[in-house]
Write a structure and sequence with these properties.
Helix content: 25-40%
Keywords: DNA-binding, Nucleus, Transcription, Transcription regulation
Subcellular location: Nucleus
Main location: nucleus
Distance between the termini: 24 Å
Shape: globular
Protein name: Eomesodermin
Mean pLDDT: 49
Structural class: alpha+beta
GO molecular function: DNA-binding transcription factor activity, RNA polymerase II-specific; RNA polymerase II cis-regulatory region sequence-specific DNA binding
Strand content: 5-15%
Low-confidence stretches: 1-98, 100-211, 406-646
Largest sheet: 9 strands, mixed
Length: about 650
DNA sequence: ACGCTCGCATCAGGTGGGAAACGG
DNA sequence: CCGTTTCCCACCTGATGCGAGCGT
């Protein structure tokens, strides 16, 4: 409990949003009758909804501005994928017990970043750690104590969204605080730096610099999250629990390789409002019920583990499930209990612990919290916004059954078309200035890519699609790299075809590395990801099985170093190549041959789906092209798509 | 005969849609 | 009556098991 609270507190402080005593909101929450089902407590809402109307616009805009992008989802692969991992998900991670999640944050609100759109999505900064400095303003919660926003932030300022340990003290045990923030206060807390403010990397905290190591976290599938966020991400919650999609996937750097850490995600209210989808927009209506009880924390199954372990590969929370069933939470540590129609903010907590997993509650400096505003989402029992639905269908492999056909993807309304228009699509990249590519998130492709699996194989896919897929905003990001994106991996000449074709090559987060990162031998099949071993966590949505399968084993995994220097310009292509090449993921023993993978996926796609004649999967299909593609070409393409990770750092 | 790889079948589980049920 | 939640459905992915084919 304490830990949880502390964490929260710290997080809050860093995030900027202060924690407030839950009083007001909690009171209402308690009234609700059926917490379990999560139904939005109508009591409060009832009145609220009507009110909403008015509030709508403003709130909406924020919501719409969307920062949300979910990313979760993967299935088995993932967690399990890391079979090698010490802790099985099935088992209650030791750490889990330690974080009484229930007590943690149910009542806290996370101050939502105001989210100037520009700042959020478009701002190049978004990819960078949010500068703490900008959060300097103090947000005074109604009746609450005031917490300086960024007070906790590292001096360097980068911690945008990061909560520093020190913050805990401020919150005292009171459990209660919550961060507020709804849009109103906007400017105050947002972790988002003012547009363009993100100055440079220089500001970034360097791991190890200063007192104590400061971790830096990258949101691996950020592009996908952003895409959802633009429309205000929605996450389905069900009694049995529903996986997030997109799911949370991070890359961490800056940890002490030998120290042990618990890594867990906490989901807290992003604002004190109850939301309702009205008139095609999300509007606030009434107050949120912050009394909702239930598990709010999901401890990564591999916790505790060494810093080296966490930094070695991508850390995915693909198995994390969201539920509205209070009753299920105590027993099920894989589920986080939420309330429908409430906006939530996931937080990543990294707590240094002893080898046996015991944390030092007296040393707040050992806790670091990272918040990515684009991860905000509204919990729903049924999708409200069709744009979100379409995004889910287009990107979540398990929802392929709902894709009429690939063509449809292209025929979708321009407004929200998820997939690239003919011009945007795959080949558009060719037209796009190289500069953009460089910035372009490599990973984006993975997540953003709407194309059917078959398309994934296309070697070109990486770059091209990315561009095409990017929404205008995203494109902007590309143009002005919001955060730092890492260069994509380059095909290694020596690798086999599979590798070439494999997603991992292109998409695997692992492949994306910040400059200067050194590769480490990959031990486990792959990142802590949840998408099956083969699959990359970050791939969240795609079947990864195939691709991974024949990934060359033994390829060294590259660990990331501090990002500071990411600018593409600074990255020598050669170096990138090296890194990429060295970043291959090791293939899990269980992995089958590539052929089976590829063929399986690819063929199945062809068989099952009607491929559009013009944009046939073949055309885009990496399968063919990838093979032909030489390493160099590949590297070019990949190098274009640089970043994938949103990078946050605590200081 | 043994081991390995590949292909196929099967199963478990995830997904959104739609209709029904529920509750204010 | 309306909004929300729940349940069931068809479809899909991914993991696994089994047998066939091949090489040693």
């Amino acid at each position: 409990m304490q830990l949880g609270e502390q964490l929260l507190g710290s997080a809050a402080s860093l995030a900027g949003p202060p924690f407030y005593p839950p009083e007001s909101s909690s009171a209402r929450g308690g009234q609700r009758g059926q917490p379990s089902s999560g139904s939005p407590q109508r009591l409060d809402l009832d009145k609220g909804p009507k009110k909403c109307g008015g509030a709508g616009p403003g709130m909406l805009s924020e919501a719409e501005a969307g920062e949300p992008f979910p990313g979760a989802g993967s299935k088995q692969g993932a967690p399990d994928g890391r079979k090698a991992a010490p802790c099985g998900e099935a088992e209650l991670p030791p750490a889990a017990a330690r974080y009484p999640l229930d007590s943690l944050s149910p009542e806290r609100y996370y101050l939502q970043s105001p989210g100037p759109q520009g700042a959020e999505l478009g701002a190049p900064c978004s990819l960078f750690p949010y500068p703490a400095a900008q959060h300097g303003s103090v947000y005074q919660a109604p009746g609450g104590a005031r917490y300086p926003y960024g007070s906790m932030l590292a001096p360097g300022g980068f911690s945008a969204a990061v909560c520093s340990p020190g913050g805990r003290a401020q919150f005292g045990g009171g459990g209660g605080g919550y961060q507020y923030g709804q849009g109103a206060a906007g400017p105050l807390y947002s972790p988002y730096p003012a547009a363009g403010s993100c100055s440079g990397l220089g500001a970034l905290a360097v791991p190890g610099s200063g007192s104590g190591l400061r971790a830096q976290v990258f949101l691996c599938n950020r592009p996908l999250w952003l895409k959802f966020h633009r429309h205000q991400t929605e996450m389905i919650i069900t009694k049995q629990g529903r996986r997030m999609f997109p799911f949370l996937s991070f890359n961490i750097t800056g940890l002490n390789p030998t120290a042990h850490y618990n890594v867990f995600v906490e989901v807290v209210l992003a604002d004190p409002n109850h939301w309702r989808f009205q008139g095609g927009k999300w509007v606030t209506c009434g107050k949120a019920d912050n009394n909702m009880q239930g598990n709010k924390v999901y401890v990564h199954p591999e916790s505790p583990n060494t810093g080296a372990h966490w930094m070695r590969q991508e850390i995915s929370f693909g198995k994390l499930k969201l539920t509205n069933n209070k009753g299920a939470n105590n027993n099920n540590t894989q589920m986080i209990v939420l309330q429908s129609l409430h906006k939530y903010q996931p937080r990543l907590h990294i707590v240094e612990v002893t080898e046996d997993g015991v944390e030092d509650l007296n040393d707040s400096s050992k806790t670091q919290t990272f918040i990515f505003p684009e991860n905000q989402f509204i919990a729903v029992t049924a999708y409200q916004n069709t744009d979100i639905t379409q995004l889910k269908i287009d990107h979540n492999p398990f929802a392929k059954g709902f894709r009429d056909n690939y063509d449809s993807m292209y025929t979708a309304s321009e407004n929200d078309r998820l997939t690239p228009s003919p011009t945007d699509s795959p080949r558009s990249h060719q037209i796009v200035p190289g500069a953009r590519y460089s910035v372009q998130p490599f990973f984006q492709e993975q997540f953003v890519n709407n194309l059917p699996p078959a398309r994934f194989y296309n070697g070109e896919r990486t770059v091209p699609q990315t561009n095409g897929l990017l929404s205008p905003q995203q494109n902007e990001e590309v143009a002005n790299p919001p955060q730092r994106w890492f260069v994509t991996p380059v095909q290694q000449p020596g690798t086999n075809k599979l590798d070439m074709n494999s997603y991992e090559t292109e998409y695997s987060p692992s492949t994306l590395l910040p400059y200067g990162i050194k590769s480490l031998p990959l031990q486990t099949s792959h990142a802590l990801g949840y998408y099956s071993d083969p699959t990359f966590p970050s791939m969240a949505g795609w079947g990864s099985r195939g691709y991974q399968r024949k990934m060359a084993t033994g390829l060294p995994w590259t660990s990331r170093t501090s990002p500071p220097a990411f600018s593409e310009d600074h990255l020598p292509k050669e170096k990138v190549k090296e890194e990429i090449s060295s970043s291959w993921i090791e293939t899990p023993p269980s992995i089958k041959s590539l052929d089976s993978n590829d063929s399986g996926i690819y063929t199945s796609a062809c068989k099952r789906r009607r491929l559009s004649p013009s944009t046939s999967s073949n055309e885009n299909s990496p399968t063919m092209k990838c093979e032909d593609m030489n390493a160099e070409d590949y590297s070019k393409d990949t190098s274009k798509g640089m970043g994938y990770y949103a990078f946050y750092t605590t200081t």
